[in-house]
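Work Package 4 report. The design task specified in the project plan requires that, given a folded chain encoded as structure tokens, an amino acid be chosen for each position. We show below one input record used in the internal validation round.
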């Protein structure tokens, strides 16, 4: 036998195949989502922290840590001691103080950025879970990022409520059992939703969104039963309806698991009617108003075009969330999340081919020779985002951010002087600087007014406005309150600075001055 013609011992050659599964092959839209997440990470990381708000909350958290009890009046603002005050944000304030102990303002900035990034991932993977087109998920993440951006004030108790909102909505969005006939809440909804509301009620007054949304679902389940032709008695006798009603009642009850009982509800209604944190009703001619308008228009169009059955619970969820968003801008984030949960299912069947089907159709290596190109580009974008962020200085080397870069124009010279000349003080300073001075000054001086300005007595508020504008009677007003240190911002109070320097006498002396600020000190005999 001719060995050249003997093919009995030939070993069949195996075709080279891919090592990674095609599920790791990202599309162009996936790459767009990654770029949006990376851009949001960098944007929120580089946004400087304001000099008001978050530092007051940290001061409250420090007070809780030092005294092992909740403060009875606004911290470092003795003029408001006689008014009613409840530290209802105590859990969030305590968390901020602990984060500040770890790394100061840079840690606060990083924690806020990670919170935003985590919430955007929650929107993409939980609220948008399902075989929806990727561009719809991208739009949902973009609208959420914009909702967080417009009112951004750093890692405040209001913005940190996104964590509790995500914990509350997660089991509802994953299982969506109110849309299924004769189906009660999942075990995870029974566990996580009440726990989220307990944490929420001890962190920020927007906790009222939790029980109201759960009540909307319960009422929606009852409505579905009535629309199905059952009587009210038959509907209420259904075990699934009873389960949703019981869960809603539990969500209302657990809001009382806090140090103030019904006081948190009084604080919530007071904040809605007379906000003390700079918030207010939704203005349609604003960034947040534009987002709400877009969501409402999208819902109206989808409701008209969709062939998916629409549940009463979805309608009530959207109505309740919309009313709350109209009352106060802090609820807009909850409205956007609810609109995402409600609107996405309405798109089923409206698009011929989903992204998953397209991947299946072109899964072979011959058809997609560069199918991992966008995966590699996504990894590159993540690395670039990390390399450009301030935290990379600890790993890659480089100069860390300065305090002036992490915080929006802080009065560093004023704080340095007060730290170098420590003594018991009662300081009058602009509200825009007071929170930072209270936070950064080592001896924790008392302030005439902080961002809790609205808690001051009416006469003190009137006198503050008089002093900020200057006037011939500024010494007499300061004498009335025994203020011993006057801080003036020369850029916004130029006339007052000129007048104060001209009025220096045996009672007041110029203690420190720069091109930005000046400090007048009462002479001590």
């Amino acid at each position: 036998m001719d060995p050249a013609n003997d093919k009995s011992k030939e070993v069949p050659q195996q075709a080279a195949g891919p090592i990674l599964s095609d599920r790791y092959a990202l599309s162009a839209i996936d790459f767009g989502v990654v770029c949006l997440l990376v851009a949001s990470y960098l944007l929120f990381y580089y946004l400087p922290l304001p000099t008001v708000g978050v530092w007051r909350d940290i001061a409250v958290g420090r007070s809780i840590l030092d005294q092992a009890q909740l403060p009875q009046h606004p911290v470092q603002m003795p003029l408001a001691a006689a008014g009613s005050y409840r530290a209802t944000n105590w859990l969030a304030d305590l968390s901020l103080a602990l984060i500040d102990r770890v790394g100061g303002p840079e840690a606060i900035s990083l924690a806020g950025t990670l919170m935003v990034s985590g919430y955007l991932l929650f929107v993409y993977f939980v609220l948008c879970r399902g075989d929806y087109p990727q561009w719809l998920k991208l739009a949902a993440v973009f609208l959420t990022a914009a909702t967080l951006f417009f009112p951004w004030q750093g890692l405040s108790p209001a913005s940190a409520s996104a964590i509790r909102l995500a914990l509350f909505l997660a089991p509802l969005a994953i299982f969506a059992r109110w849309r299924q006939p004769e189906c009660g809440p999942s075990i995870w909804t029974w566990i996580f939703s009440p726990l989220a509301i307990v944490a929420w009620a001890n962190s920020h007054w927007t906790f009222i969104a939790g029980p109201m949304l759960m009540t909307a679902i319960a009422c929606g389940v009852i409505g579905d039963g009535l629309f199905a032709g059952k009587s009210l008695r038959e509907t209420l006798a259904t075990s699934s309806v009873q389960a949703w009603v019981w869960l809603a009642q539990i969500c209302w009850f657990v809001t009382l698991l806090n140090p103030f009982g019904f006081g948190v509800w009084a604080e919530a209604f007071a904040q809605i009617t007379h906000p003390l944190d700079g918030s207010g009703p939704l203005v349609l001619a604003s960034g947040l108003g534009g987002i709400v308008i877009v969501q409402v228009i999208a819902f109206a169009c989808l409701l008209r075009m969709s062939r998916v059955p629409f549940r009463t619970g979805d309608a009530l969820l959207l109505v309740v969330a919309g009313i709350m968003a109209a009352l106060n801008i802090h609820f807009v984030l909850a409205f956007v999340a609810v609109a995402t949960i409600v609107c996405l299912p309405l798109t089923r069947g409206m698009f011929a081919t989903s992204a998953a089907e397209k991947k299946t159709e072109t899964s072979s290596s011959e058809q997609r020779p560069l199918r991992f190109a966008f995966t590699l580009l996504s990894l590159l974008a993540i690395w670039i985002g990390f390399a450009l962020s301030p935290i990379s200085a600890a790993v890659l080397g480089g100069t860390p951010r300065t305090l002036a870069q992490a915080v929006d124009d802080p009065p560093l010279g004023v704080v340095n002087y007060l730290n170098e000349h420590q003594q018991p003080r009662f300081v009058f300073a602009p509200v825009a600087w007071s929170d930072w001075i209270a936070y950064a000054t080592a001896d924790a001086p008392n302030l005439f007014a902080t961002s809790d300005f609205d808690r001051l007595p009416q006469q003190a508020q009137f006198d503050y406005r008089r002093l900020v504008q200057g006037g011939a009677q500024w010494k007499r007003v300061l004498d009335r309150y025994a203020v011993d240190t006057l801080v003036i911002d020369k850029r916004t109070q130029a006339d007052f600075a000129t007048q104060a320097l001209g009025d220096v006498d045996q009672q007041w002396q110029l203690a420190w001055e720069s091109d930005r600020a000046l400090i007048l000190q009462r002479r001590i005999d």
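The chain has 22 helices and five strands. Validation will be extended to a larger panel in the next phase.
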